[in-house]
Amino acid sequence: MWAVTARFKAGEAYQQLGQPEEAIKLFQKIAEDHKDNSQGKYAARRIKLLKQKLEQTGRNPD
Predict the structure, then answer these.
(1) 4 contacts 20 by C-beta, under 8 angstroms
(2) What 3-state DSSP class applies to 1?
(3) Residue 55 in contact with residue 61, Cβ under 8 Å?
(4) Which is nearest to 61 in space by CA: 21, 3, 23?
(5) Are 48 and 42 in contact (CB under 8 A)?
(6) Which string of DSSP letters, residue by residue, matches 2-62?
(7) The model scores a pTM over 0.70
(8) Is residue 43 a contact partner of residue 30, using CB atoms and an 8 Å limit?
(9) What are the pLDDT digits (tens) for 14-61?
(10) Which residues contact 14 (CB under 8 A, 6 or more apart)?
(11) Distance between CA atoms of 27 and 36, rounded to whole angstroms?
């Protein structure tokens, strides 16, 4: 559980530093490893939101 929390915090830090691509990588790992629980579902929502923001700014989310 601590590892998941640490990844979330690192993802949030990357996001605040203006590095959403790195944040997406961390959130994808959480979403893949925990797809059947709330942490994985929350990470998937964060990925979706970050990709939408990237698209709005003309950056490629993938």
Answers:
(1) no
(2) coil
(3) yes
(4) 21
(5) no
(6) HHHHHHHHHHHHHHHTT-HHHHHHHHHHHHHHTTTSHHHHHHHHHHHHHHHHHHHTT----
(7) yes
(8) yes
(9) 999 999 999 999 999 999 999 999 999 999 999 999 999 999 988 876
(10) 20, 22, 23, 26
(11) 14
Which pair of structure tokens corresponds to residue 47? 């990925």
**Which amino acid makes up residue 33?**
D
Which amino acid does the sequence have at 48? K
**Per-residue tokens: 13:** 């830090």
Quick count: other Cβ atoms within 10 Å of Cβ 36?
A: 8
Residue 7 CA neighbour count, 13 Å, CB half: 20
